[in-house]
Amino acid sequence: MARPSVNLLVNNSANDVVCSNPAGDSNYILFAAGDYLTWRDTQQLDDDSMTAGSYPVLIPESGEDDAPKMFLGDVSEGKFKQIVNAGNASASRYVLAAYFTCEPVTIPRLEAWDDLTHTTAASRPLGNGTPADSCFRAIATTDAAPSVDWVGTPIAGAANYVSLTSALWSGAKYLYWNMRMVVDDSMLAWATEDWLNSDLVLALHFTYN
Amino acid sequence: MQPWKIYISFEDGSRHVTEDIRFGRPGWGDVLFTKGIKQIVFPFTVSNCRGTKKASIILRDMKEYNFFVECAMNVLSGKMITKGVWFLGQKGDSDVDAIIITPDMVVFDHFKRGREYRGEPSGGWKSGLSIGNPRLEIREGWYDWSAN
User: Fold this and answer.
1) Phi and psi at residue B147, to the nearest 5°
2) Which of B68, B72, B79 is opposite residue A105, by nearest beta carbon?
């Protein structure tokens, strides 16, 4: 099959429903060039301006905690658009989506890398060389809803990934996943540049022929 | 013979050439082959600090064949990165030989069928002949597929 075109979408509503349009619908926003994902504190609200008050995630003094809210940084609108059901507080299934125009040859994987070159995954947020310590945990929800309090797989590099479905398919298809970001007290020792790292990338890894 | 196309010879002597595999539509998975494949040849170029060399990957007499391009799309930028090009041949009931061309190296590898792509199966396999002595090799130069 030819190389699939892939559209990435985020569910901006509280409705746990499938995406009805690869270009976005009343629930889903299509990623556009320059958009990004970010986690924020509870005070950050949907539709907040990106140039107004910014509320970063607070690091717990002890133990670990989930970053409270996940947002799409919608550059074209200049707003933070909340991905309302992101995280493990609920059993939401339809949170982030990738629409494939045709089937790939192998099951697509969600990966995280230090930068656009996809050569290393050893930055502090990705575990500092220990992938199990990656802040970013994901779970595939294409085939089934997760349980509340799902743990997810720490993603970092080629060996620590999430397969977005369980079997190959034929034709166009939406794949779904959910994500959480875990922060813990060890991050208090991070350098400023570790926190301001904007090079990290999520990638969808797939094949075609 | 042009590089970056796959030259396929069938059991009855007929032939097929795919599109240039670098441009998103190689033409392997889109075409239904009604005859068994005898041989596939892939001419390509290898570059290093000492210059550029011509080489050919040759798979012959395999029970089944597969080929795919491995890529990754950055979620935020949408930019696509080609990670590698895979050529696979199944020799017996389950043994798969593979050559993987990455931007940095060419790798020979062996897998069990169903676990050939990083422990998972791949789709798009095409029938071969499963006679003679199956082999997978790289030769210097662009192999003359029409004479073999």
Assistant:
1) -100, 5
2) B68
Residues of chain B contacting residue A111, judged by C-beta atoms under 8 Å apart: 72
Record the tokens describing residue A86, joined without a space: 């992101």
- Residue B76 to residue A37, Cβ atoms within 8 A: yes
Spell out which residues of chain A touch residue B75, defining contact as CB-CB under 8 Å. Answer: 8, 31, 37, 201-204
Per-residue pLDDT reduced to its tens digit, A44-73? 999 999 999 889 999 999 999 999 999 999
- C-alpha triplet A132, A178, A121: angle, nearest 5°: 35
Place of tokens 């990455």: B102
* Chain A neighbors of B80, CB-CB under 8 A: 3
Smallest CA–CA distance, residue A161 to chain B, in Å, is 12
Q: Could you read off the pLDDT of A173-193 as tens digits, one per residue?
A: 999 999 999 999 999 999 888
* Residue recorded with tokens 């720490």: A154
Facing A106 at nearest CB: one of B75, B79, B120? B120
8 Å CB contact between A88 and A81: no
ipTM of the complex: 0.92
Model's pTM, two decimal places?
Answer: 0.93
Q: Does A35 touch chain B (CB under 8 A)?
A: yes
**Chain B contact for A75 (CB, 8 A cutoff):** no
- The alpha-carbon gap from B146 to the nearest alpha carbon of chain A, in Å, equals 24
All residues at 6 or more sequence positions from A123 whose CB lies less than 8 Å from its CB, including other chains: A114, A194, A197, A199, A200
Flag whether residue A201 sits within 8 Å of chain B, measured between CB atoms: yes
